[in-house]
Structure to design on (219 residues):
């Protein structure tokens, strides 16, 4: 089994997430991508979040019809006990379920990877699984290598692969999806169409549930 974990707030899931997942699935022959909405994202505690149930429901709708896309409850509130969802803990839980022939990667956008040094036990996390880092407009992929101190790197690497002590960083530079959840929320608040930005079933859900109608964020 070749498994990737895709963690996020998914508030809501959008076509950028899905483009990243599809590109990773093709390039790395992934058998499964677990989409894992965090009930309590460690770095987003300041802002009111859409409830976990809504975010998970939208992930489920977006995964429908793609056998490899699996909505995951690994970071559901009942799994988290009120604690923030730290990726290192989720990765360890999944790794413990997999055997030696299996491969585990973490799928992440370039913006989020650049923030990695602020994540809990981030050096242990880099040792725990491969990373598939997907380009995102506005976040230079060239900066990626600078995030990782030289002593953690094992050799020079190539344009799309940076070998680490036990794992590797894979750079996927072909995704150019200029979509963000904040942008989708803002459009929804303005009553604008979400066509093309989120799957139709997700747009439908947002409308039926009246989500993001009162989005007062500056961004
Ligand atoms: P927000 O605008 O609220 O920050 P977001 O669009 O960044 O939301 P998240 O749920 O924060 O979405 O992102 C989850 C993961 O998906 C992160 O690793 C992020 O880098 C990645 N990601 C999100 N949007 C894109 C995109 N357009 N292209 C590539 N990766 C993306
Ligand atoms: Mg984000």
């Amino acid at each position: 089994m070749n498994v990737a974990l895709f963690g996020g707030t998914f508030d809501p899931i959008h076509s950028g997430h899905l483009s990243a997942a599809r590109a990773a699935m093709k390039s790395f022959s992934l058998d499964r991508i677990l989409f894992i909405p965090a009930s309590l994202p460690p770095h987003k505690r300041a802002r009111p979040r859409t409830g976990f149930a809504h975010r998970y429901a939208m992930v489920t709708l977006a995964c429908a019809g793609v056998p490899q896309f699996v909505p995951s409850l690994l970071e559901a509130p009942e799994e988290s006990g009120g604690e923030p969802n730290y990726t290192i803990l989720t990765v360890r839980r999944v790794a413990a379920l997999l055997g030696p022939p299996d491969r585990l990667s973490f799928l992440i956008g370039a913006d989020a990877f650049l923030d990695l040094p602020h994540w809990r036990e981030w050096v242990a996390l880099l040792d725990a699984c491969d990373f598939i880092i997907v380009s995102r407009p506005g976040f230079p992929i060239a900066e990626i290598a600078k995030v990782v101190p030289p002593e953690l790197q094992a050799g020079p690497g190539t344009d799309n692969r940076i070998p680490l002590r036990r794992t590797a960083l894979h750079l996927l530079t072909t995704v150019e999806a200029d979509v963000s959840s904040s942008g989708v929320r803002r459009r929804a608040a303005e009553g604008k169409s979400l066509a093309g930005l989120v799957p139709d079933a997700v747009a439908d859900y947002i409308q039926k549930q009246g989500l993001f109608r009162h989005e007062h964020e500056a961004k």
